[in-house]
C-alpha cells in the first residue's frame, strides 16, 4: 500500500510546468527576473481581476511586505485571527509591531466580527489581517464594514483560498492587499513561493523595490532603504504558470473529495463536516470536520488509526493565543467569558486527507478506516 498524503504537489498530466521551465532554460533566464515571473503575475491578475501583483519567494514574505506597505512599524498594533498558521502572525513581529489576536466565529471558523468590534473598543490598530482558512471565505461584509468605520486597512491572507469566491469576487481582492501562497501543500504550487496582490499599482511597485534589495535608481549600488531578497525565481514562476492552467480542475477535484466524505459519513451522527458558506465558492483546499462533544471517538483516535495505515491527516491549527511564543499578547474571544471558539474547534477538529492524486480506492480505504471506529 502506498502512502496517502494530506495534500501534496500535483503536477499537470499535460506537462505544462515543464514547458515553461524549459523556456526559462532555453532563454537562460534562470534568475529572479524574466518572462515567467511577469506572465505568472499577469495571469494571476487576470484570473482574480486585480490591477497589480508581485511574485515573491513565499506567502510569508508577501505578508511581511504587505504589512510594510501598509506602514506597519515599531509600536503599531495589528489585529490577527488566532485560528491560523503561525506564518500569518510572524511578519507582525518582523516589523516590531504587536499582534492582538481575534477569535473565530462558529460558521466559517474565520475572524469573529463580534470579537473584532470589541477589540476596536480597546485598540487602534494600524492594520487588520483576515484569513480565509481551509478555503472558506471569512464574513467579509461584516468585517469590512467594521474596518471601514474605523478607517483601518485590511490585509487578506488568502494563502489557502486561491480560487475561493465571496459574493462573486475572489478572496484576496477585498483588502488593500491580498496574499497567496504556492507552498508545496497548497492548492497549486511553485514548490515554494507567494504573491502579493493589490489594486494599488504604486504600492506593488514599492514592494518589488523592497523585494529586490531596495536598489535606488543609480548606476552604482546605492541604498536609502533596507531591502529584502524576496523575489520569486523565474524557474519557479514557470511551475506556477503551468499549475494555474489546472487550478479549476484541482478545485473540482477538491470539491469531489469533500462530497465523498460527506456522503460516506452522512449517517455517523458524531461527525460534522465543515460546510462551505452559501455566499460563494469554496476551493475546499482541505476537507475538515469536527467531532461532536459527546463523541467517544476523539480526533487523535482517527489520526492514529490512519497513521497506522500510512495515511496522513492532522489536527486543525492550534490557536496562536495558546502558542508559547504568542501567549503574552492580548486576545478577544467570540463571546466574553466563554472558551474561545477557536480553542473548541481545535479540540474537536481534524483535517482529512485531501490529496487530489487520491484514487477512488484510496478514498475508500480512508473512509473504511474512519467508519470502523464508530
Ligand atoms: C501556507 C500559509 C502561509 C505561509 O505561506 P508560505 O508560502 O508557506 O510562506 C500563511 N498563511 C496561511 C494561512 C498559510 O496556510
Verbal overview:
By secondary structure, the protein is an alpha/beta fold. It contains 12 helices and 13 strands. An 8-stranded mixed β-sheet has the order 1-9-8-5-4-2-3-12, with helices on both faces. It has a 3-stranded antiparallel β-sheet with strand order 10-11-13. A two-stranded antiparallel sheet has the order 6-7. The protein is globular and about 70 Å long. The mean pLDDT is 97. The structure holds pyridoxal-5'-phosphate. The site of pyridoxal-5'-phosphate has 14 residues, from helix 3 and helix 4.
Which key terms come to mind for this protein?
alpha/beta, binds pyridoxal-5'-phosphate, three-stranded antiparallel beta sheet, 374 residues, 13% strand, 12 helices
